[in-house]
Write a structure and sequence with these properties.
The mean pLDDT is 94. This protein has nine helices and 16 strands. It has a seven-stranded antiparallel β-sheet with strand order 2-1-15-14-13-12-11, sandwiched between helices. By secondary structure, it is α+β, with helices and mostly antiparallel strands. α1 crosses α4. 26% of the residues lie in helices and 16% in strands. It has one domain: DD-peptidase/beta-lactamase superfamily (Beta-lactamase), CATH 3.40.710.10.
């Protein structure tokens, strides 16, 4: 499904059916957001920066002692023992939001994948805090690694507010924006609107697979655990397009939105995300050849994309082949949603890119 807000403020949507044609997708269908959760977590963190409850450059260990003495994984010796050293630089909220903390996903880095397997760590979507007790791949602030950083941002938000992440999101973001179907938890009514998840098979057909984010997590998956609808999430994106406010509700200051979508990473390179788990993801390089950076929560293209995004546009994607972007220069925001694994599916990427190109050709 493709949804967008155009320069004149009108919204458009193209609907489709599920892969087995069992039901039609609508703006009110419930989707697993996967990593589109990260943008919401990042906005909540910046709200706390505005209020003074968090700072970007203070070590997060003040509120999260578990991150006080991170180790860097350099590899394995001839006896199969992990080679670890102490990190010299404290991890900050800025590092976590920009994915320069050194933390990576087990499914996108073979070293971290091996470590997680040998230590018997659960999956990162499990709701088990042990899943996130991973070593770093580099000194904080020196390299870009896409991974579990945003999940720790969620823990930081809870520590700073004394509230659950669900409560913070509902009171500070979802309720003001009218995002009534957005939550970590599924009601029985929402389950009736829930889109199934499918796996792409080698013959290009689809198979429905059982999947649900744990509904009684010990730790919220702040990087990938939310459910929402196209209609709800488009309101969130429209708020970002309108510099932090929508329909008279101020969610973030204009300055915070600018900081989140600014080109903060002039040093560490934002590049391809490699796959070491073909069941979950393919290799992913958004816009090969396009100069990219990372702000406080989003990927930013520094040059125009083949589909037409202007420089300074920002966005990202989710594991179930969900893609979004906000283009302030063109006054467009768009959202392409599927529930297909593995990520970076060539068919989904082609459809998303074509829908985006058609949108830009129409304005």
């Amino acid at each position: 499904m493709m949804s967008a807000v155009l320069p004149d403020g009108d919204s458009v949507q193209c609907v489709a059916q599920t892969a087995d044609q069992s039901c039609e997708i609508s703006a009110n269908s419930v989707f697993w957001l996967a990593s589109l959760t990260k943008a919401i977590t990042s906005v909540a963190a910046m709200q706390l920066v505005e209020s003074g409850q968090l700072t970007l450059d203070e070590p997060v260990a003040r509120l999260l002692p578990v991150l006080a003495s991170p180790k860097i994984l350099h590899g394995y010796d001839e006896n199969g023992k992990a080679r670890l050293s102490d990190a010299e630089t404290p991890i900050t909220l800025r590092h976590l939001l920009t994915h320069t903390s050194g933390l990576a996903y087990p499914f996108s880095n073979s070293l971290i994948g091996r470590y997680a397997e040998e230590e018997g760590l659960p999956a990162t979507i499990s709701g088990d805090p042990r899943a996130y007790l991973l070593p770093l791949l580099s000194e904080p602030g020196t390299q870009w690694h896409y991974g579990v950083s945003t999940d720790w941002v969620g823990q930081l938000i809870e520590a700073a507010t004394g509230e659950s992440l669900e409560t913070v999101f509902k009171t500070r973001i979802f309720a003001p924006l009218g995002m009534a179907s957005s939550s970590f938890f599924l009601s029985e009514e929402q389950k009736s609107r829930l889109m199934p998840v499918y796996k792409r098979l080698p013959d290009k057909s689809f198979k429905q697979i059982p999947f649900q984010v744990p509904q009684n997590p010990e730790m919220y998956a702040a990087g990938a655990g939310l459910y929402s609808t196209p209609g709800d999430y488009l309101r969130f994106l429209n708020m970002l397009l309108h510099k932090g406010q929508l329909d008279g509700q101020r969610i973030l200051s204009e300055g915070s939105v600018q900081a989140m979508s600014s080109k903060l990473l002039e040093g560490p390179k934002v590049g391809c995300i490699d796959s070491c788990n073909a069941a979950l993801t393919n290799d992913y390089d958004p816009f090969p050849g396009v100069d990219k950076a990372w702000g406080l929560g989003f990927s930013i293209n520094k040059t125009i994309t083949p589909q037409g995004r202007k420089p300074g546009s920002f966005g990202w994607a989710g594991l179930s082949n969900i893609y979004y972007w906000v283009d302030p220069a063109s006054r467009i925001t768009g959202l392409f949603m599927t529930q297909i694994l593995p990520f970076a599916d060539q068919g989904a990427l082609a459809s998303s890119g074509e829908c985006e190109r058609i949108l830009y050709d129409s304005i």
